Amino acid sequence: MDIARLIDHTLLKPEATPEQIKQLCQEALTYKFASVCVNPTHVKLAAELLQGSEVEVCTVVGFPLGANVTATKVFETQQALNDGATEIDMVINIGALKADDNGLVEDDISHVVNKSHQHGAICKVIIETALLTDEEKITACQLAQKSRADFVKTSTGFSSQGATVEDVALMRKTVGPEMGVKASGGIKNYSDAKSMVAAGANRLGVSAGVKIVKEAQQQ
To answer: Which of 51, 74, 149, 217 has the greatest number of C-beta atoms within 10 Å?
Structure first.
């Protein structure tokens, strides 16, 4: 298994500096990660540094709360695409899901997915599993699938818990084999990464990407 090709090399800390983004991109080129995942303010820099490489530029929308109105999420998406993003990780409206307002949740996802697809970008939908019941996790995955999103993603990494093997397995079972499942939050080492892949993840959002690849090489 080429674990590096499953990794979104992630730096979403609010205090991240341009220097740190440069290092992140250099590591992504060295280890051939699938993408770098950075905050919107760093997309343009990352896109410049990774131009001509196979490393995708991923950013976040409605992050980390998901509580922006849809029009704001669409504007954020357009701006990110203009700046060179090729993958969009958006957060659902969690409160609307909790209130059984599935129409709003689906509409919100659909608008961001459509904007992403218009520009040839892929869209991953963060459902923030730590805040949901199993039933809500299933509903969120079904709404993301209905909205033609490319992936469902467990977590922002900013809530009470990140990815669990159980949640990844439930998400994979819900969306079937065709859709992507991204595990993120709390994946600290190669053992964690392997467990998530075994449970059904085909992308991993991690800040410990270099450590994970080095551990994999020692196996």
So the answer is: 149
